[in-house]
Amino acid sequence: MKIAYYPGCTLKTKAKNLELAALACLDKLRVEYEELPRWNCCGAVFSLADDDLIHMVAPVRDLIRVQERGQDTVLTLCSMCYNTLARANDLMKNDEEKRKTINDFMDEEPDYEGNVRVVHLLDFIRDDYGFDKLKEHITAPLNGMKVAPYYGCTLLRPKEVALDRPDNPIVFHKFLEVIGAEVIDFGSATKCCGAYQVLGAPEATLQVSHEIISDAVNNGAEALALTCPLCDYNMGKRQDQILEKFDDAKELPVYYFTQLLALAMGLESGVAHFELNREIAQKLLKKKNLIKT
Amino acid sequence: MSTTTEDKETKSAAIEAKLIPIYIMGKKYEVPESLTIMKAMEYAGYKYIRGCGCRGGVCGACSTIYRKPNDYKIYTGLACQTVVEPDMYLTQLPFYPAMRATYNFYDLEGKPEEIFELYPELFRCVACNACTKVCPMDVEVMDYIAALKRGDIKAAAQISFDCIQCGLCASRCMGELPQYHIAQLARRINGTYLTPRAEHLKTMVANIQAGRYKEALEGLKASDEDNLKKLYTGREMEPATAGEDWTPKDSTYL
Amino acid sequence: MPIFISTRESDDQLRKKVREISGQNFQQCYQCGTCSGSCPMIEHINVFPRRIMALLQLGNRKALEESNTPWVCASCHTCMVRCPRGIDITKVMEALRLIKLRQNIDRIELKKLEPEQIADMPQIAMVSGFRKMTS
Lengths: 293, 254, 135
Ligand code: SF4
Ligand code: SF4
Ligand code: FES
What we know:
Largest sheet of chain A: 4 strands, parallel
Structural class of chain B: alpha+beta
Bound molecules: iron/sulfur cluster, FE2/S2 (inorganic) cluster
Oligomer: heterotrimer
CATH class of the largest domain in chain A: Alpha Beta
Strand content of chain B: 5-15%
Number of helices of chain B: 11
Helix content of chain A: 40-55%
Shape of chain B: flat
Mean pLDDT of chain B: 93
Structural class of chain A: alpha/beta
Radius of gyration of chain A: 19 Å
Order of helices and strands of chain B: HEEHEEEHHHHHHHHH
Number of strands of chain B: 5
Number of strands of chain A: 8
CATH class of the domain at 105-194 in chain B: Mainly Alpha
Distance between the termini of chain B: 53 Å
Number of domains of chain A: 2
Low-confidence stretches of chain B: none
Strand content of chain A: 5-15%
CATH topology of the largest domain in chain A: Rossmann fold
CATH topology of the domain at 105-194 in chain B: Fumarate Reductase Iron-sulfur Protein, Chain B, domain 2
Helix content of chain B: 25-40%
Largest interface: A-C, 48 and 42 residues
């Protein structure tokens, strides 16, 4: 059975590099997937209020779309979508009362009981595909490029939906190791980049993002790998502002994990769309002879 | 007071049809069961100054909200199209305030970001689906909003194609979106930037500008009424059953 | 900053409301400060999470309303996974936000956002930001 693929809005516009690289890899790995023909924005954040069920409706609708097609697993690439869908699923599975209210409210939809499995590409590779099997496809390993794995928040917290231990996770480390990077462990790997506070407290967000990048650099990273378009915005796209604002800021290339995977699998570098990253991202890869000049 | 044909029709319907009770803004009226809401309201003595346009289900001026006895559901319909039901409670909602962004269309390049800038409230949609449920044209409003959030202007234009700008979706929106205005912008962009230009139209416009039809038009202008009538009734028409390859016998102006 | 304790200032309604919305029993907080020590936004908030819990226990509406903490909180859940008392502090922050938002008081104004910023940001930034900061 093909697994359902839920892209999320941002991957269709601002984070095409995250999506296109991933899909090229999945094709090469012969993973059978299919984008949901109908889906809506999941809401990006899970409602944290006990009495606010209306914000649960969006992710549950998407899970219903998966169920409707008779599929049992939905694959995500964006960490925020992963978190929102996984938490909504958890709620529908375990909270009988809320499940009933939500199902009753959506009287135009079939009932949903939480029977779809929500996975992120990282745990899909670990648990379903297997790191060992992936290793066989790594034909152009990253030659020990020093990469710091940045997990951010939503893959690890809260515990119910964590891909790994919320403190001291290893799945992303392992992934980078398999694709031939030298993994740079750093304290800020699970620290928040400020997320949506880029709207409410943009200066604060700049500062915390700066701290994360500095921590990676100080631990010897040549690059940062991440999984979330909002983290990429705060630490990748807004790095110009960080460099301008903080005297001690150093420039650090930022990549989506799927872009690095595509490289390591020897796929033509065009599929990873490095032109959508900051310029330094391509420079480093050229310097490392990982892409042709 | 003069009596229009319409009034006569309404009255004669009244003579034959059974009367049923309906409630207009809470007040009970007995109206002939076969009438549309619009005609029933006129029968009951209301006079439309606004809230009515085409009377044919396309202008979107006559949105009506109603409920049925012992039913929590909200029903909607176009007053000019929906037939009355016994004991319905109705009110017209011909207009609902919804913010329409101001833009100079030809300054736009047709990128999703431009829609985001003009209508950032787009991102407040919670996928409650109230809009789709209320749409009298069965447009999947929530789905076109979802498409726009991911920047798929083409899909939004296609899904919203049947929208008649009645505004009912906006009246129910949790996120306070003016859905139909956003969709209109999407359709404009789709038509102007994302749809291939019609080549034959381009040729035709060039022909017109080059004066190819000037003489024929001048001839028509100079004709008297009788000649015009003759030309009109005698014109060659495409038969209803004509296939793709049909061409007129007189191809002077093709 | 001293905390004034007075029965007149103690707002039981607020405590009840937060408990209802968040489903969390903040009375269980024993003021260890793990949350404050975990908060990535610590330099940018004017009342640390530990103190938010104390103010809630006291029902000090005024001090809570004056704090920017719920509005700078990024819902990163770090405090939540580390709290030794198992309190979901992120839910408490959400409740504090919602109490304002439900009065139709927005924290950010969409119309004041720069068009360039809107065009530049990923959609998830706006979707999540509007959810957290508009009613
Ligand atoms: S989409 Fe909205 S404005 Fe358009 S017809 Fe449906 S309810 Fe009316
Ligand atoms: S009514 Fe508004 S919030 Fe609800 S689905 Fe439609 S656009 Fe979204
Ligand atoms: S009057 Fe135009 S749609 Fe009803």
